[in-house]
Amino acid sequence: MKAAAHPLGEFELIRRFFVRQPKARGAAESGVILGIGDDAAVLSLPPDTELIAAVDSIVAGRHFLPGTDARSIGHRALAVNLSDLAAMGATPAWATLALTLPSADAHWLERFSAGLLDLADEHGVALVGGDTTQGPLTVSVQLLGHVPRGMALRRDTAHDGDLLAVTGTLGDAGAGLAFASGRPAAIASEATAALIQRFDYPSPRVQFGLAARGIASAVMDLSDGLAGDLPKLAQASGLAARVAVERLPLSDAMRLAVSASQAREWAVAAGDDYELLLAVPAARFAELAAAASRLNLRLTAVGELQAGSGVTWSLDGRDFQPACGGYDHFAQASTQITV
Amino acid sequence: MKAAAHPLGEFELIRRFFVRQPKARGAAESGVILGIGDDAAVLSLPPDTELIAAVDSIVAGRHFLPGTDARSIGHRALAVNLSDLAAMGATPAWATLALTLPSADAHWLERFSAGLLDLADEHGVALVGGDTTQGPLTVSVQLLGHVPRGMALRRDTAHDGDLLAVTGTLGDAGAGLAFASGRPAAIASEATAALIQRFDYPSPRVQFGLAARGIASAVMDLSDGLAGDLPKLAQASGLAARVAVERLPLSDAMRLAVSASQAREWAVAAGDDYELLLAVPAARFAELAAAASRLNLRLTAVGELQAGSGVTWSLDGRDFQPACGGYDHFAQASTQITV
User: Fold this and answer.
1) pTM of the model
2) Most B CBs within 10 Å, among A1, A51, A147, to test the B interface
3) Fold adopted by A31-148
4) What value of ipTM does the predicted structure carry?
5) How far apart are CA A18 and CA A250, in angstroms?
6) Which of B10, B135, B219 sits opposite A138 (nearest CB)?
């Protein structure tokens, strides 16, 4: 590595691309006593809250395609963590960034930091720490937030008889990834563009996570696909799950772009939607649906939980066997980007 | 990537290698309400404290040599963050791990997690979140801790007239790295082995950081070498620094292994020592030294801060010009491992 190829030092790089002037919010409101620039950040939690901490990394060739717009990469790196906090019913507050990148390319960094910081601003998140290293592109974000004491939404607290519900529509991101990768070859259209947009710019359901507090009995986010994630919620809660595949919510774009059976397959098993999966007592489903409606968010009951174990799928009343079981980075890489 | 080559799934991998049974400490003492296994961790801060958050990544070929024992890599990944918390005077409490690795090799993971978790146990740190991804080896640890409200040690709060002090001995890790890399060719000896050990297993000065609270006026840790780090403390505090190079503390191993001028060069500019650099009012230096002594830790006054800006080095009363200015990952890679 030649020094001349990397004119920006680490300190300058963080200052130039990742330190935004604080908006109207002051230290008191943001809880940031000391941000980027010291050995660590100093933060103040609101009274009577518990701290929520999530971490997720995204890696070139695993979570995004080579050549992806850096703005999408920055957005995604924060969005996947916001989705985790949404699933806890937490208010996101502070993020730290560990960024490994091959070279300090100013154009790339401008796009990347804009994607990350615009989403951070939207959700009131302050970037309070960063670390940059030269190496293969890897982005790791740690996100911190808070919930009122005892109010965090967990995945091990569902009850026998709860309905299973999902936000938004399922499978869109998987479809978008497939189209962006050129498989299946698709005629470029508004529908495929909308699906690719859903993959590139996931919308974490933070506001709905807050609204679900005190109503839902268990929540998790859908990052590895329903077939990959639902067994985790069912197992953590010690229950069996049944899903009626014909009820899985599909977007208009999905219906326009592919066959019903392909749409179903993606809705069942494709990852990266970052919708929420919720268990809710049947008597309180209407209340949860009203909360979703106030946020212009679709909420669909897709199944139920009952005593037992395992996940059973049906399609129009008949047994249904998903083609694949969700994404696992080390065991089943074939369902997502492979290297 | 073939599934058969990676028999362990991500969930199983985290469970098997990174979840230790809690020791005597229960949830009440550790503050862990919900650890690994949900979308995020739920943590409880002690009353009247502020949250401290640090993040640091280590990358193969940048922070450790190819072929390094995974135990050392796991130790280092946490140690560099513990050192940041030590520099804030914080009590470390919780860590999250973002691990990108080429393959899920059980032997490597056993060594890595032992190195990380043994050091975590030593400092009462609970691993509360993890994320594993397939890709080039990158380890990012986020460490959370706390300080009594208003008591965090910062780097921008030194005063005109403060003494500059350092813990331990300087340059050992840089010497160890040089010997481990085979430059200069050295006769294997107890001295070179001790220096290599200092590079492979840094000892973060957490207990001393706690002891320095309320005595030191500013603190930072030495990760990029005195010549790289001191200018940051001086600039943050708006002061000039003077260092008497002949006072820089050298280990017996260093004195045995290399010439005085080589030792001096490493003590001034080599990184990775993870000692603390402190500014302390002259009238309180004895108090700080006594605290160090109780921890069997050396504390050496090496210079002072005064009105002005910049850093001036002297050797036996004459001006001294350091050969290089400390380590920066993007601008001056030549002072550490290069790729």
Assistant:
1) 0.90
2) A51
3) 60s Ribosomal Protein L30; Chain: A; (3.30.1330)
4) 0.90
5) 37
6) B135
